[in-house]
Amino acid sequence: MKNFETMAACGIGLLLAIGIAYSQDDIEVAADNNAQAKLPLPPVEMPARNFATAEEHYTWLLEQGDGGTQHTMATIPVWDGLWSAGNNTMPGLFLEEGTLAIAMRPGGTVKEGVLTPAYEQAFRERRAEMDEYGEQLYDRLTNCEYPGVPRWLWEPYIKEFVNMPTQSWMMNDLMDETRRVYIGADHVNIDAKHSATGDSIGFWDNDKLVIWTRWVNPADYLRGLPLTSNQFEMVDTWQQITKSDGTRQLLTQVTFYDPIGLVAPLSAAYTHISREDLEKFGVRIRNWECATTSNSYKDEDGSTQFYLPGDPEYKDPRGFTDFPDIPGQSLNPIFDAPGSTGDDTSKGQENDNK
């Protein structure tokens, strides 16, 4: 069924409503990208000089940091709680006066000479499709593919961060996509292949985490924005800032390196905001399952569409395991059963949460 526009609009609005807030003095929950784009833009800190590669950039930062701060569990910066993405400057790298409000919507003028010819042409074709149809017709999330780097930086779901002396875990709710940063280590790739989040190494410069990521699958910067190549790498720094009203913010400065896709390296700034309100509400990161519950598909025209209840191909995400006739096999024993107390003791599909 062709209900993409309605479902996409509702889905994006819900995600952003869950995922965006700002300071205690000016709490603002956004319902769409227009509202998010009105949030303050973080300042971009350009690299101290032009670096030809991510390796050169990272090595220089490591030297400036005297080899890195050797933290213990007693001194490691703590970024506890839930975090959600705020505004960022990335769309302006590729679109004239580009903001998040226009990145995934029609309109906007492509900047010339930022992307290599093949990638600029692909980007122009993507934007032309959006102008013609009002949206990007197909996105790889349709097939349960990972957002990947650098889209991970902005995904409008919640994140959690766990810092330890030898590793940092940066966990995204969407698709359980976790970046593991190996502190004081070298890049290792025993699988001899790329992955959605690549391989990340890093070091601490006092309270600032510096990361170099490489071996990343081809992806894109965001839906509606340019593609990245299999030679994409990035250097990003993370630092917690506490505002005058006590609000905690993570400020991320990132430089993108892609010799196949970019004419020259590009730098942008991202933000994440501490979300104590979501913690109090009871929001938690759960296991993300896509392959057996997603009802999106790519149709014969190459567009993303959705199976809805009533379609033969529709998958009920709150159904049963492969053993519906055995008691306790309902995947949703609490919320759908009228008068249920949470005791999933009924027998078979007839009585077990129809």
Element layout with pairings:
Blueprint: H1 4-19, H2 33-37, H3 54-64, E1 83-88, H4 100-103, H5 117-133, E2 159-163, E3 167-172, E4 177-183, E5 199-205, E6 208-214, E7 233-242, E8 248-257, E9 266-274, H6 276-281, E10 296-298, E11 304-306, H7 348-351
Parallel strand pairs: 4-5
Antiparallel strand pairs: 1-9, 2-3, 3-4, 5-6, 6-7, 7-8, 8-9, 10-11
Provide tags for this entry:
single chain, 354 residues, alpha+beta, 2 domains, 9-stranded mixed sheet, two-stranded antiparallel ribbon, 7 helices, 11 strands, globular, disordered N terminus
Radius of gyration: 22 Å
Q: Total number of helical segments?
A: 7
Helix content: 10-25%
**Any idea how many domains?**
2
Question: Which class do the helix and strand fractions yield?
Answer: alpha+beta
Q: How much of the polypeptide forms β-strand, as a percent range?
A: 15-25%
Query: Looking across the biggest beta sheet, what order are the strands in?
Result: 1-9-8-7-6-5-4-3-2
Low-confidence stretches: 1-32, 339-354
